[in-house]
Amino acid sequence: MKSLVIAEKPSVAREIARVLNCKDKKQGYIEGSKYVVSWALGHLVTLAEPEDYDQKLKQWRMEDLPMLPDKMKLKVIRQTSKQYQLVKKLMHRSDIDELIIATDAGREGELVARWIIAQAKCHKPFKRLWISSQTDSAIKEGFKNLKPGSNYNKLYDAAVCRAEADWLVGLNVTRALSCKHNAQLNAGRVQTPTLAMVVQREQEIQEFKPQPYWTVRADFGDYYGDWRDARGQSRIFEQEKARQIADRVQGKTAKIADIKTERKNEAPPLLYDLTELQRDANRGLNFSAQKTLSVLQRLYEKHKIVTYPRTDSRYLSSDIVPTLKSRLQGIATGPYQAMIEPIIAKTLNPGSRFVDNSKVSDHHAIIPTGEKLKLGELSLEEKSLFDLIARRFIAMFYPPYSYEKTTIITLVNGERFYSRGRVVKEKGWKAVTQLWEEKDKAAKEVLPEQSLKLQDLGSIKEVKSCNLKRAMTSPPPRYTEASLLTAMENPGKFIEDKKLRESISGSGLGTPATRAEIIEKLISSFYMERKGKQLVPTSKARQLIELAPESLTSPVLTAQWEEQLNLIARGNGSRKEFMEGIKNSARQMVKDIREDDSEYKPDNVSRKKCPACGKNMLLVQGKKGKMLVCPDRTCGHRQAEKEEELDVFKKDRVNKKLLKKYSDDGEFGSNLGELLKAALEEKARKSKDEKQQ
Fold this sequence. Notes:
Layout: E1 2-7, H1 10-19, E2 24-26, E3 29-31, E4 35-39, E5 45-47, H2 50-53, E6 74-76, H3 81-91, E7 96-102, H4 107-119, E8 126-128, H5 136-144, E9 147-148, H6 153-181, H7 191-207, E10 212-219, E11 224-227, H8 239-249, E12 253-266, H9 274-285, H10 289-301, H11 324-330, H12 337-344, H13 380-395, E13 401-412, E14 415-426, E15 449-450, E16 460-462, E17 465-472, H14 481-489, H15 498-503, H16 515-524, E18 528-531, E19 534-537, H17 539-547, H18 550-553, H19 555-569, H20 575-595, E20 605-609, E21 616-622, E22 625-629, E23 638-640, H21 645-651, H22 653-662, H23 671-692
């Protein structure tokens, strides 16, 4: 008898098959003496569409909402149905006596395999392969320690709840908004509150009124000092007051009133989880969150030099500690060799700052696997991203960054001037890595650092000069992908109520694995545009946040959902209670939309007519430049801004048949106008009939 191994992707399946000595390659699977290895193509099975419950739901009508099936159905995804049928056939083969789930070790990976098993009505026993890297040793060790499939039933329950909640809330709210306003408006449990944060920030920027302010700096000869008031503020909003301070100290005698020297130590930063890596890659490499995930996936699957990407932990479990030396040895080449040589001979003990079993749930932090690093086989993007991971990993074994911080307070005629300097004592971990800091408003009040000579307390100084500097207050910065990922991970700061804020601590909007996808979806749906590194909301976004149910725009609701899903996954929450709560939310949201009398008014209407329905199209910024999109959701036509009418016409499948009917080469000359008119009239009739139905 044999075991059927189900991997998530063909590339992973091929590696598992090689390690298991399966060599007989067939269409859609690889067979050996003990194992048959097959794969999904991402998801093969998904939740059924509304029309699968009732054909009348194929048409979007407000009177049919909310849609709340008693039991959610599954269906095979049409595009990958061939692979599903093959996997189903393998499951029911008489010589297969057990299944081994080898999909990604996480909530979504569990869902991929379990839905296939459920749809295929396979009741054979199954086990779970749970590994954090795709190296040969990890695969072999994983198969030696297969877990009972039932160990992950609660994780599967959480995955199903997440999927069904998205269906119930997302589809109902999206249909309600679209029907109410006859526009392509979509909403979701994570994307809407995420968009709300971007819209709120843009509103703060637009409403911001710059104010002039002044700062005062005195030159004491061998150092300078910046004026501060009793509260430590440097900004003076009255020019006359600033001038008076400058006049009081100009040419006067100064005295060093205080010298404070502190020894500071900065420990190495924690290791990377997916979100932190996406942040740093956006700041330092200008990678989008989605690009970081894509490149990281190649490093994991193709090159096998990093551990599982979609992790939310920045810590290691204790069982990893004995492998640290071999992991360092695996990357001790190229620029990393000199960094590793000083530490490899020592006992490697990263300590509790980095090793904490209680802070590792499904997967530990992203680190090298120990596979031999072959830099020549990596693309420039792969090298750049791996460099971040490698240096962060190496930094863990380096001593703290150590420096002396000196602050001098100089008194001049009753006014205080502050000076700050830093002397590096030991570069420590900063010799091998770096941090990209997010700029914020508070940073403007930080004293600038300068090179300070040794000074004596009580020394008398002369004020060589005193200058005023005029500046303007600035609005909060627009979100970048790095800062938006931070906001999604820690949405508590957007909530005033302390109890509510504490309730979502450690949760956040979405998961590390889905945040990049959410950002890309908001961009592709024309809710946000990239302008350099900045993310700018569109008029469509601002109106959607006004039209969507208020509860859906708040990070509180979606964060609470994610928290409940984690409880379900750990066996501490009720799947039934969670889903009842979701259904009640969906009912209320549809009711709120139905009763709302607000209007949606696109302000990006162009003069270009839609070739399918004749309405004026909307001009939007797409991935590859400006696009024209039909505002009527029942039409949905879109084209490049400068695309010619004939080119648009040819791209439509129905139109292609008409073109063939009139001409073998698709060139019409004077016939084109008549053909277009006839085709558009036919489309208009069909659209009208569908609406009447």
